[in-house]
Structures are given as structure tokens and as C-alpha cells.
């Protein structure tokens, strides 16, 4: 071989950069190399120093790699929050869907249909004992279904509250751990542990992003600051601001014109936050104060059928109409309220953040259009759990209650005007009032069903149990209110209280019966050898009070068949009382009217949704479909975000990753090649020296 060839071969080997060095598997992360790019990525951005055996990564290449790595990390943190939000809902929504799917909501033999069908059968043969038992059995099935599902939703909501508490505890620990890492990174004593601390910090940040959505940034000392996407500071370099699960509360924001120095209180629970805004100011106690209400942070207001804002009047005693099942009371005679004063009610456990400036409500909130309130938590397990509790399970609970209330009201309206062959000598109302001196239609009466009553006539016929004939003074059985103010014959809920009803009954029944108010409930008792039968009631009062009714309760939570009917199916009212005050055994008019409710369209109004007019079983079917759709959406969102998160993880591994064994093997091979090239050069040098030393 010529000397020139040997020199060229060695020189080319030395000056050739190791551009062929590649990791065997770029998805296997290299440990302790978080600041080093993969070989393949580095080569694309390298500058070559033409000094034998040296290669250098240029400043520009490092910057590109670093910025790309940072963007991937940021996307991974955000996607982790989104994945955790939907993954936390997925399994529970599938369980809820399974609960509703156990009922064939549209079949002709579903639970609700069987209930009404059995009433229709009873109307054709009201004396048949087995048919009455079938009515009772199907009624219990409806109660068991609705009440069981409502209880299951409540239990799930309670479990979600506990899960949120656990997530908050873990989150607060992670926030404090991040503060500790920041302090160690800032210490000069730990400069040799920088890579270890950065990896630890990244792990903590990812753990935080699993709990809620966050933004991060570094200060000049490489200390990380963390905040929610909405801007609430969680970690400010060396300080952590913890989050807590707070109890229901109410807060106020008064205008400069307001002199109100009292307080506003509420009772009841709801899955929605309620904002009250004063529209007509004045002193509490005058009956002049009015307000409107919003369930979505003042983006919209509760309205009537014409689209006008509903106006709620505060009565002289400070009570207000029920809003979203919440009873609100204003402290009377405490300054003047002004238009624009607002009161925000959070009637549930909620997430709050504490800062030196005060407490901030961070509870996740969804608007009626499906969008999230960007000023609150929107991602992570905490958002998932609370959105599931309030937006999903809360809506299901509202609809179950609306369905149960509709069935109870419709059935009781007819049953309260019916009669059976079983005589009644004493009846006590199942629904009570708060104040028996307040007109029943008023806010202060406390009658939960006061929206079901109107002005009209009530009929109660007292009969002699021995002769079966009506008592002589109550031939027509109409309850006369002429003896109580305002001395009109008919009942008027806007002026008549429960005590007024008691007095009118005593005046009408005379010596054959009496009425009392015990425990804020109306009780009617016939005298010895007498019984009474309920007749036509155009006011709906007896049904609203829960007297002579089929169902007790007002919602799915407390719905039940009256105990007396469960014990004696013969007491089920299938017929009516004739003009002579006697029950016609073969009459089935009441049962027929209840059976016809199967296909009757009812009006259902759910906040944020268009008012629906459909049958009870169709409404339940729509609820079942909604649960299925929500479960399918949660599953899709989980899988979608999981796929994106996996892709980001692969990118992250590609940037950081290399197979150490493969790298060492490749480096060893090139090292051997370099040594071989060096030996060629040394051999050439020896040959040159030998030639140079040869005598001429």
C-alpha cells in the first residue's frame, strides 16, 4: 500500500463524525440524560469542529431540542388533566347507565306502564281482590325503582364527595412537595443534583396535573410556579396555597346604594349554584322587595313561558318563594336593599382556595350550553368528580324527582276525590306546613305542594255507619268558608291558612266530626258511629295536603304508597261517592281516570333544557337514553385523550430516550475503528521515519 493511501485512509477515518451512531430503540428512555437529546436528533442539529475526533452540538441545536421538549411536556401536562377528568367519570357513568338499562323504558310491559295498565284493569272489575293486589304490587315496583335509583345516585354523590376530599389531600401534599424541590434547586449546595431534582419536579408536576388543570412557568432561578388554568396561584416559588372542600355557604355583593345590614339564609340542598339579584329594592318587611334568580352565574335568568324573567317577591316576614328547592329568608328590618344587590348561594360542598385576600370558589361549573366556566377548575380528577356529581348525577336526580312528583300529583289528584267500600273515621295529612297561620299559597306556609292548589270547592260527606245515610247537616258535603275571613264560600289559598281550613271544616261538619291541626298537619275525625267520604275537590287541597291520597311524599326520595293501602288493598279508591253519599261498589271511574294517565302528556321543565310535554314513561325513557349517551361520551373522551397522551409519551421518549446497551456497543465499535485508523497513521509515520533515516 502506498504511503499516501495510508495517510488518506487514516485521515478520513479521524475526520469523519460518528453520524451513524443510532440508538437501537429510541423509545427506551435513557436514565440521567434528561438534558441530552437522542443521537439521531442531535446529528440533525450538530455543528462539526474539524479537529480530529471531536464533535460538538451547536447552541442552536440545543435550543431547538430544548424548546421542543418543553412544548411536549406542556402538552403532556394538559392532556394528563383532560384524561384524568374523563377517566374519573367513565366507570361511574357506566354503572349509572347499567342502573337505568335494567328497565325496558319503552316496552309495553315496563314498570311504569304496568302500573297504569293495572289501574285500567281495576276500573273494569273494581271488586276483584287479585286486581287490587296487582295495582298495589305494580305501585310498589314503581316506588322501588324510582326511590332505589334516587338513593343510588345520592350514595354515589356522597362517595364522590369523599373522593374529592382524598384528591384535595393528595394535591396539597404534592404542592408542598413542589415547594420543597424549588427550595433545593435554589440552593447552591445541590448544584450537583440538578438533573435529579428536575426529574423529581417533573414527576410532581404530572401528579398535580392528574388532580386539576394547571399552567407552569419558571423564574430566573429555575423555581417553578404553578397555577390553575383560570389563574389561581397554587405554588408561588416558595409558597403553596392549599385547596379545601368547604360546606354550603352564601355570600353577598352589595351596591354602593345599598344600606342592607342584615343577613340572608337558606335551607335545602341543590346540585346547582343559585345567584339572586335584587330587581326592586326596599326595606325587608314591607313586601316590596323583588329579585330574579340565575342558575348559571348570571348568564341567563329563570323565566316564564313567555321568556320574561321570573320575579320573586320577598314577603313581609322575610320569606321568599322556593328557588331550585331552596327556601330563602331575608332578615327583616335590616336596612334597605338596592337594585343590583346580589347573593350567591352554593348549597353543596364545594372546592375553595384560600389566599391572603380571602376565599375563592373554584368549584367546577358547567353552563347550560355544555361549556365549562373557565374561571373555575376545568380538568383533572377533581373536575371530573365534581362535574359528575353536580352536572350529571344532579341532573338525573332532578329528573327522577320531577318524574316522581308528576306521578304522585297526578294520581293523588284523582284518588283524593275517590272512595272505597272501606269506611274512614280518621284521616291525617301526610304533608305538613311550617306556619299554619300563613295563607297556604304563600311562601311562609311551608307547604311543599302549595303550587298544586287553587281556589275552588271541597266536598266531604259524613255518613251514619249503621244506616249508610249522610248526616242531615251535610247533605251536599261542601266545606263552607263563609264563617272565616274573608267570609267567602269557596276556598282561596291566597288568603286561607291551614288554621282557616280547620275552622271551616269544624263549622261545616258540626256535631258529626271535628278537625284539628297537630304537628302542623291537618287531622279530621268523625264522631262515633259516623264515617266520612271524600268527594269532588276542584281546589286540589286534599291531594296537596296528602289526605285520602294513594301516594305519600313529594319526590323520588320520599315517595311511598300510603301504609293503610299497603295493609288493606280494599281501601284503594276505585270509585266515587254518589249524590246520596254512598259508594257504588261497581263504580270504577277513579281507577279509569288514573289508568288513562299512562298516555297523558305532562309538562316537564328541567333547568337549561327546553320544556318537554310527554308521557311519564317517555320521559323516563329519555332519561335512560341520556345516561347512556353520557356514559358513551365519557368512554370516548377517555380513549381519545388516552391515545393523545400515549402519543405525547412516545414523543417524549424519542427526545429523551436511547438504549444504553446499544449506545455503548455502537460507541465501542467506533472507538475500535478510531483506534484502527490511528494505528494506520502511526504505521505510516513509522514508515516515513524509516524512509527518512535511510542513507542516501
TrEMBL record:
What's the main place this protein lives? Answer: other
Q: Which GO terms describe its cellular component?
A: bacterial-type flagellum hook; extracellular region
Extract the Pfam families matched here.
FlgK_D1 (PF22638)
Ranges where the record places region Disordered: 14-37
Source domain of life is: Bacteria
Keywords, A to Z, come to: Bacterial flagellum, Secreted
Care to name a GO molecular-function term for this sequence?
structural molecule activity
Flagellar hook-associated protein FlgK helical domain segment(s): 95-285, 369-420
Biological processes, Gene Ontology terms: bacterial-type flagellum assembly
Subcellular localization is given as: Bacterial flagellum; Secreted
* Keyword check for Transcription regulation: no
The answer to whether UniProt assigns keyword Transferase to this entry is no
Entry's family note: Belongs to the flagella basal body rod proteins family.
What is this protein identified as?
Answer: Flagellar hook-associated protein 1
Q: Which organism is it from?
A: Halodesulfovibrio spirochaetisodalis
Amino acid at each position: 500500500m502506498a504511503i499516501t493511501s495510508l495517510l488518506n485512509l487514516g485521515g478520513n477515518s479521524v475526520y469523519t463524525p460518528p453520524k451513524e451512531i443510532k440508538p437501537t430503540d429510541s423509545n427506551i428512555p435513557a436514565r440521567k440524560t434528561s438534558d441530552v437529546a437522542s443521537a439521531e436528533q442531535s446529528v440533525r442539529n450538530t455543528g462539526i469542529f474539524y479537529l480530529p475526533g471531536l464533535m460538538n452540538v451547536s447552541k442552536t441545536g440545543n435550543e431547538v431540542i430544548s424548546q421542543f421538549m418543553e412544548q411536549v411536556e406542556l402538552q403532556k401536562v394538559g392532556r394528563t388533566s383532560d384524561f384524568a377528568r374523563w377517566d374519573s367519570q367513565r366507570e361511574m357513568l357506566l354503572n349509572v347507565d347499567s342502573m337505568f338499562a335494567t328497565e325496558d323504558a319503552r316496552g309495553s310491559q315496563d314498570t311504569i306502564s304496568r302500573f297504569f295498565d293495572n289501574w285500567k284493569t281495576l276500573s273494569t272489575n273494581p271488586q276483584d281482590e287479585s286486581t287490587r293486589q296487582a295495582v298495589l304490587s305494580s305501585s310498589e315496583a314503581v316506588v322501588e325503582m324510582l326511590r332505589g335509583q334516587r338513593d343510588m345516585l345520592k350514595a354515589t354523590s356522597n362517595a364522590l364527595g369523599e373522593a374529592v376530599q382524598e384528591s384535595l389531600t393528595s394535591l396539597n401534599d404534592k404542592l408542598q412537595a413542589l415547594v420543597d424541590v424549588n427550595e433545593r434547586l435554589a440552593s447552591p449546595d445541590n448544584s450537583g443534583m440538578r438533573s435529579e431534582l428536575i426529574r423529581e419536579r417533573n414527576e410532581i408536576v404530572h401528579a398535580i396535573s392528574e388532580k386539576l388543570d394547571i399552567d407552569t412557568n419558571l423564574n430566573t432561578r429555575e423555581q417553578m410556579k404553578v397555577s390553575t388554568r383560570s389563574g389561581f396561584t397554587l405554588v408561588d416559588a416558595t409558597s403553596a396555597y392549599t385547596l379545601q372542600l368547604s360546606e354550603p355557604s352564601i355570600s353577598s355583593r352589595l351596591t354602593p346604594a345599598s344600606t342592607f345590614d342584615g343577613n340572608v339564609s337558606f335551607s335545602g340542598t341543590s346540585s346547582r349554584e343559585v345567584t339572586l339579584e335584587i330587581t326592586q329594592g326596599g326595606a325587608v318587611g314591607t313586601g316590596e322587595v323583588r329579585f330574579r334568580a340565575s342558575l348559571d352565574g348570571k348568564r341567563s335568568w329563570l323565566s316564564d313561558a313567555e321568556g320574561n324573567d321570573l320575579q320573586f317577591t320577598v314577603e313581609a316576614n322575610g320569606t321568599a318563594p322556593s328557588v331550585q328547592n331552596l327556601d330563602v329568608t331575608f332578615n327583616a328590618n335590616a336596612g334597605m336593599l338596592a337594585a343590583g344587590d346580589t347573593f350567591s348561594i352554593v348549597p353543596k360542598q364545594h372546592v375553595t382556595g384560600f389566599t391572603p385576600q380571602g376565599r375563592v370558589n373554584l368549584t367546577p361549573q358547567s353552563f347550560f350550553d355544555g361549556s365549562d366556566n373557565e374561571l373555575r377548575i376545568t380538568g383533572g380528577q377533581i373536575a371530573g368528580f365534581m362535574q359528575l356529581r353536580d352536572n350529571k348525577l344532579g341532573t338525573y336526580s332532578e329528573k327522577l324527582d320531577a318524574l316522581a312528583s308528576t306521578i304522585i300529583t297526578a294520581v293523588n289528584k284523582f284518588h283524593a276525590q275517590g272512595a272505597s267500600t272501606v269506611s274512614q273515621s280518621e284521616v291525617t295529612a301526610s304533608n305538613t306546613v311550617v306556619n299554619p297561620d300563613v295563607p297556604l299559597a304563600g311562601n311562609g306556609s311551608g307547604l311543599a305542594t302549595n303550587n298544586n292548589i287553587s281556589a275552588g270547592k271541597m266536598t266531604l260527606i259524613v255518613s251514619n255507619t249503621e244506616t249508610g245515610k249522610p248526616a242531615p247537616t251535610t247533605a251536599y258535603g261542601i266545606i263552607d268558608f263563609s264563617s272565616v275571613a274573608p267570609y267567602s264560600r269557596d276556598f282561596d289559598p291566597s288568603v286561607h291558612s291551614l288554621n282557616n281550613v280547620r275552622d271551616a271544616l269544624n263549622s261545616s261538619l258540626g256535631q258529626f266530626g271535628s278537625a284539628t291541626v297537630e304537628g302542623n298537619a291537618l287531622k279530621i275525625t268523625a264522631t262515633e258511629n259516623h264515617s266520612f267520604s271524600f268527594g269532588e275537590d276542584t281546589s286540589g287541597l286534599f291531594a296537596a295536603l296528602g289526605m285520602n291520597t294513594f301516594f305519600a311524599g313529594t319526590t323520588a326520595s320520599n315517595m311511598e304508597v300510603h301504609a293503610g293501602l299497603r295493609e288493606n288493598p280494599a281501601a284503594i279508591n276505585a270509585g266515587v261517592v254518589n249524590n246520596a253519599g254512598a259508594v257504588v261498589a261497581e263504580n270504577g271511574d277513579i281507577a279509569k281516570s288514573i289508568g288513562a294517565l299512562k298516555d297523558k302528556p305532562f309538562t316537564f321543565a328541567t333547568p337549561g333544557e327546553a320544556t318537554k310535554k310527554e308521557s311519564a314513561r317517555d320521559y323516563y325513557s329519555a332519561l335512560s337514553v341520556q345516561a347512556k349517551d353520557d356514559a358513551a361520551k365519557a368512554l370516548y373522551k377517555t380513549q381519545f385523550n388516552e391515545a393523545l397522551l400515549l402519543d405525547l409519551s412516545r414523543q417524549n421518549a424519542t427526545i429523551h430516550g436511547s438504549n444504553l446497551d446499544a449506545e455503548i456497543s455502537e460507541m465501542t465499535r467506533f472507538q475500535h475503528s478510531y483506534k484502527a485508523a490511528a494505528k494506520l497513521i502511526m504505521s505510516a509515520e513509522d514508515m516515513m521515519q524509516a524512509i527518512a533515516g535511510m542513507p542516501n
